[in-house]
Each structure stands twice: as structure tokens, then as C-alpha cells.
Amino acid sequence: MSGYQNGLSDTTCQGPLGSGTGSRRSFLQMGLAGFGTLSLPGLLRLQAQNKLQAGEAAESNREKTAVIMVWQPGGMSHIESYDPKPNASSEYRGPFSPINTKTPGLDLCELMPRQAAISDKFNILRSMAQKAGGHPAGSMQLLSGDPDTRDKPKPRLPDWMSVANYLRSKAGPRQNPLPAYVGINPPLEYNGPTYLGDAYSPFTVHGNPSLPTFSVPNIGLSNQGEVSRLGRRSTLRQNLDTLERAFDQAGELAALDEFETQAMTLLTNPKTKEAFDLSKEDDKTRDRYGRNSWGQQLLLARRLVEAGVEVLTTSLAGPLCGRVNNWDDHAVNQHCFDAMKFRSPAYDQAVSALIEDIYERGLDKRVLVVVTGEFGRTPKISYAASTGAGDASAAAGTIQPGRDHWPRAFSNLWAGGGMTTGRVIGATDKRGEDSVERICGPGDFLATIYHHLGIDSSTTLIRDFSGRPTPIVDHGKPIPELIG
Fold this sequence. Notes:
Layout: H1 31-37, H2 43-54, E1 66-71, E2 98-100, E3 107-109, H3 113-117, E4 122-128, H4 135-144, H5 160-169, E5 181-184, E6 203-205, H6 224-245, H7 256-268, H8 270-275, H9 283-289, H10 293-307, E7 311-315, H11 336-360, E8 367-372, E9 376-377, E10 382-385, E11 399-402, E12 405-406, E13 410-416, E14 423-425, E15 427-428, E16 435-437, H12 442-452, E17 461-463, E18 469-471
Helix pairs in contact: 4-12, 9-10, 10-11
């Protein structure tokens, strides 16, 4: 597979120069007011400089592969999902039974019947492990490959989504009016583009797509007066920019027009609005995913990658998770078994619908679906007093069961990507405490995703803030069983 293979001498990817001068907003999210005032030394210059310094990359003339990452913030219990342990003692196994699937050797928790019925369309990796026990460090390990086990207030390395967006941007002018990287209620708390600059953050969509009032602002403008006024602003600024072009020594300003065109297209092309419009889907399809936030998020994800978005991230969080709005099932937060039972119907329906849809629509070679959190939960059940009543949590002071953070062993799901499916990869011990067979770490996780995107993670380097060439993955290799 062709990829972005960069040597250290003359093809190392150049990180943005003076990335701190850019606006903290992506140029694709600026809206009308932002577009009217955006200056050349801002985000468009940032993207143009990167492209000119690094040169063009591969895959510019063929349909590009894409990734949908479904994130479980807080970490899902592997015992109550993809790695049940029915023979463990009562201190470990929990109240749920395993059920058979179409995959030999793969039983799932009874809470996942829809996924069990289509297990021939995905693989389960049961032997993921990392070394960070906190949410920030655990997320940074898995999303950027940062080996630090200490929780930090902000990431040191760019996440794989921003890296892919940055590298893909070098392949030449983007022909599709949609942004390459979109986040639908995305995981943003513990990751980001860091030294790549905010221009490579996602075009972010917030809200509940299942609500009739849901809309994405500042795309596909239908008011011709606004479109004309926007065009006049652009023309005026272009005329003023000729003064600055006279002082352009590097020639980077010649490349700005294409980025400006992308922003204008997002704001004015009716096709962009249509891609985000879930009303274009028939009722049967919307019902299939589930008429709730998670179901409609994953339907919108499928719709966008089918329309040409290349990197799509979405978090399954909020009220559907239970009282604390995430998967962090400590006993003080919520009753861990009630929480899994509470959220599993929506989760199982949405994920199974996405997987089936990817295959039925012929996207399974081009689109890779990855479902994961930053770690698993402690196999041994703990007990503590609830800190508050709510969905899946008893009244404050009530002793209830919980599972705590557990990075030593957890599972994730992989579908599409042209891979052979219907397999279980790796194993944990009899209690689910440690990965013991085909152990995979964050570097392997990242290298596998990059491989699908046509990026050779073993040779690709990007210069950091100090100008030092930094590998996008400094450990790990693509997981053979997950490669198409």
C-alpha cells in the first residue's frame, strides 16, 4: 500500500512554523463573521506553509480510505461486554451470562445480543493493554502513543486523527466540499493537534442528532444575500492581500487560494448541508440505528464518511450512559451492573446497525470502524457508597458495586477495513486481569489505524515545536489480523 513514507533527511514532515500565531479555531469552523475577518497570517497561512514545506503525498488520485472511531469515554468493562468470565468466582464474574456468537471461540456478554448475531462482520481484540491508570494519560496513550503514565493537563503529542488530517492535507487540493476530519460530539478533553496547530482539529458538531431541532450552523448557506455578502468580503480581502504578497519571500501565499476556496465551499455549497441532514435518511434506517443520540450519531458518521469525510470520531457519552454521563463505573458514581444494563440496549443497537450498514452499502473495504475506550474496568468487583441517586445509581449513601480503572487488559472492536472478520484475537487470563496472548499496546493500535489510512507509521516523522523530527509512532506495528 502506498503511504506517507518520510525519511529524516529531506522528506521529514515539517511541523507548522510559529503555530502559536494561528487562531484557536479551525478555518472550517469560523462561520460568517470569522471568515470576514480572518487574516493571512492566521490559519490559512498555517495550512499553506505545511503543504509547501512538506510536498505532496500519495493517494491524491484515488478514493481515500476512512476511519470511524467510536469512543467510550471512561472505559467500558470488558467483563460485561466482549470478554466475559463465567467461570471466575463471584468476586469477579458479575451477574450476566455469556451468549454464543457466529464466531467460534467468541462469547459475548448477554447484554450484546445484536452484536452477537453479526459477529461474522467484526473482530474482537481481547488483549489490549497499556500502562496508564488515569483517564488523561490513558487516553493520551491510546490516541497519540504518549508513553507517559502521569496525568497531564494537556497532551504532548498530536492525536492520530489530527496527524492523519495533517498528512492527508499534503496530497493536494481537496476536491470534496466536506472537511476531511469531523468530530460528532468528539473526544476532545485529553487529546488534540498540539504542535500541528489548531487548523488540524476537527470540524466539530455538537448536540443530539435525534432531536428535531438539531442542525449544524454555518454550512450550506441558503440565503443568497448572505452568500453574496460573503463573496464581497472575500474579494475585498483578496485585493488588500496583494500588498502583502509583494513581501512574500517563500511563495507560500500562492497556495492560500485553495484553502480559502475550501472554507467558502463549506459555507456556500448546498451539498455540505445535505451531507449533515439526517432527514434525508428514511425512517426505517433511522429506526434501525435507534432514535436516540448514540444511534443518530453513528448514522450521521456513516452518512459523512460515505460522502467523503476521511476521519470521523464520536463519543458515546451523556445521559444514555447513566448518572455520570460516561462509562466510568466506580461504585461511588453508579451501580456498575445497572449502568451496563441501562446503556447496553442503545449501545448494542447503534454499533450493530453501523457495522451492518457499512457492509450492506459496500463501504467495508474503504471504511474501518474501531470501537474502544482508554482502558477496561477492574475484574474484581469493589463496593462503596453512592454519591447520588440517578439513572443506574442508588440514593446517596447506598452501598453498591463498581469496577475501577484497569489498563492491564481490555477489549476493542474492529470492523470493515477490508480485513477478514469473524475472529477473536488475543486472550486474557481466567479472571480477565492480564492480557496473556497476542498482547497489543497503544503503538500497535495506532499503527494499525495508520496502515489503513495509507500512512507508514514506521518511517513517518513530523517536526515538533522545537523542530525535532518526531515519529508518529515510536513503538508497535500494525496488527496483522486487523489488516485488509
